[in-house]
Every structure is written in structure tokens, then in C-alpha cells.
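Anyone able to model this chain together with flavin-adenine dinucleotide?
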Amino acid sequence: MSNSLVFCSFDAGRDGLPAGAEEVLTLARKLATARGVDLDWLVIGAQPSGVEAAAAKHGVAHIDHIDDPKLAELEPDVVVAAVQQYCGQQSPALLLISQTFDSRLVAPRIAARVGAGVVMNAIDVASGDGEVKVTATAYGGDTRVEYDVAGPVVIGVVSDPLLPEAAASPSAPEARSIAVDLAGVDERIRTVQKASSDGPRLEEAQIVVAGGRGLQDAENYQLVEDLAAALGGMAGASRPIVDDGWTDSSHQVGLTGKITRPVLYVAAGISGASQHMVGCAAAKTLVAINTDGDAAIFKYAQYGIVGDCLEVLPALTKAVKGG
Ligand SMILES: Cc1cc2nc3c(=O)[nH]c(=O)nc-3n(C[C@H](O)[C@H](O)[C@H](O)COP(=O)(O)OP(=O)(O)OC[C@H]3O[C@@H](n4cnc5c(N)ncnc54)[C@H](O)[C@@H]3O)c2cc1C
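re: yes, here you go
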């Protein structure tokens, strides 16, 4: 059994490094150094540009690459099968995955297939007494949980709170092509991403204007879209209004939606429930508009407007347009 520690990445539709790669590699390297084992990087599908340079920067020993025509779309069933076969060949002790919408679909399934434990929402991973100590968030970020984990384990790491840091001395990673047989793998679950606009993905938007139940009515979501457009940003939403069909799920911010980290986040008619805040707490500046001066959202906001969003949103749009 290998003792190696593996960072596994697969990221469809991105240029450059996979989301959170450098942050998770930094965490993984510290753990690998403390345990005296190799840090390897498993790249699934087409290898993005910059992987070699980032691997060297973060002290990676091997870049293990699995590519196959069946991995073109990085569909969950095929990714799970590929990683399962890799684990069968390499038997890594720990598999770390940057937690994204896509990786949340596959990490627990990989763990189940290879008989490993799984911890999601990890924000720190450190060496314990022969074991691994994983700190993770729970209950939508309200609570911290510590796990002492023994044996093989798959860990989904939330990269937002982490800062990338280069290794003291770079490595010269060895590239290994890993052969797997995906011929018999059927895609039972397909991920359908609805294109929401020609602009950036919500997770990457610099400005997000989001609306919640305080908008009162589906047609008022247009006020959120108008301000977002005027500011050159994107429109977001709380879960209840997505559930009610006021907008589609590609706009949902929060625990079960998108994790945004914009420069500016405007929350209109949103109460500030922890499950929503998970998706916007990393915003540099948060502006809240709410009729209830005691709403929880004001605890997080740098700027607060106690008022009716049906009046404030059009006024802001008008002001931004110079009217
Ligand atoms: C497992 C789980 C996962 C979840 N995941 C998510 C998630 O990903 N994203 C998410 O958003 N939620 C999520 N939720 C739901 C979450 O707990 C809250 O219920 C939800 O965020 C509340 O949405 P809201 O703020 O739009 O509505 P409400 O809580 O109803 O708040 C509406 C706010 O609007 C204000 N308001 C009313 N009228 C006006 C007006 N005219 N002008 C201005 N303000 C006004 C009110 O004072 C109130 O503060 C999840 C819940 C669970 C249990």
C-alpha cells in the first residue's frame, strides 16, 4: 500500500488551473511533509495549462494524468470510475479534492467505491498522532467539527479560506500517464449547466446583485437584474425564490448553490440565513437592503440600507446610470 497523498483535480470549461488548486496543494504539501510522504497530483481529463509549473512550485513529486475520450465532458460517472481505478493501482492514503459543485457530486461516490472514509467541507487538514485531523464546517458554516481520521480517506477541501504558498524549494515533478479502462462505463448522471449569460460565471463575477423573498413577487426580480446589468455584474438569488421559479438555479447563492467571492455583493430582501451567507461571506464589500433593521444580514454588511428594496433598487439603478 502506498502512503502517498494525492491532490485530485478535474475541472471542465476553465482556462488555466483548476479552481482552488494552489490553495489545496499548499495544505496537502504541509501534510505530506509532516507525514514524510510524496505529494502527487492526479489530473483527470485534458491537462490544463500551468499544471507543470504549479506542481513544481508546490513540491509535487508526480503528475499522474488520466486522459481518455470518455473524459471529454468530465461526467461524474466516468470521473468516479477513473479515480476508482487509479486508487486500485496506486492505493493513496489520502485523496484531497478542491470542493466545487462538480466535485461534491463525485467525492463521496469515489470514497464509497474504494472503501475509504469521506469528509467534506474541510477547511484544515493536519497531521495527528499517526492519524489525520480534519477540521470541517457543518450546519451551513455555523459549526466547526474536528475529525480524527485513520485509514484511506477522501477529503473535500473548501479552498476559499486558504491562501496559496509556494514550497520552500520547488520540485521537478515526474509525469506519469495512468492507463485506465473506461470502455464499459455508462453515464447515468449527466450534469447540465445552463448558460446564464455571456458574462463570467456567478462564482467568478466581480459584482453580484442578489435578491430574496423580500422582492415580494417574481416579476420584481427584474429590478435585481437591472441593477446587476447597470453595474456590469451578475444577478444572484436566495434559494426560496429559485425554488419558487422566480429565476433558475444557476443564480442561486449559498450552501446548495454557488459560492461567490465578488468585490461587491448587494443583497436585496435577503434575511442573511447562514446557508445563504456561505455563498457570499467572502465578498469584499457587502451592501444589504432590508426593511427590517434587525435582519441578520446587517451583521455581515459593511453598508446597510433599511428600506424597501422595491424602491431602493430602481433608485440605485437610476443613480448608477447617472439619471
Ligand atoms: C440544507 C439547507 C440548504 C440551504 N441552502 C441555501 C442556499 O444555498 N441559499 C439560500 O439562499 N438559502 C438556502 N437555504 C435556505 C435558508 O435557510 C433561508 O431559508 C433562505 O436563505 C432565506 O431566503 P431569503 O432571505 O430570501 O428569505 P427570508 O428569510 O424570508 O427573508 C426575506 C427578507 O426580506 C426582508 N424584506 C421583506 N420585504 C422587504 C422589502 N420590501 N424590501 C427589503 N427587504 C424586505 C425581510 O425583512 C427578510 O429579512 C438552505 C436551507 C437548508 C436547510
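Residues 212-214, 216, 238-240, 252-257, 269-271, 273, 275-276, 279, 289-292, 295, 308-310 surround flavin-adenine dinucleotide (CB under 6 Å).
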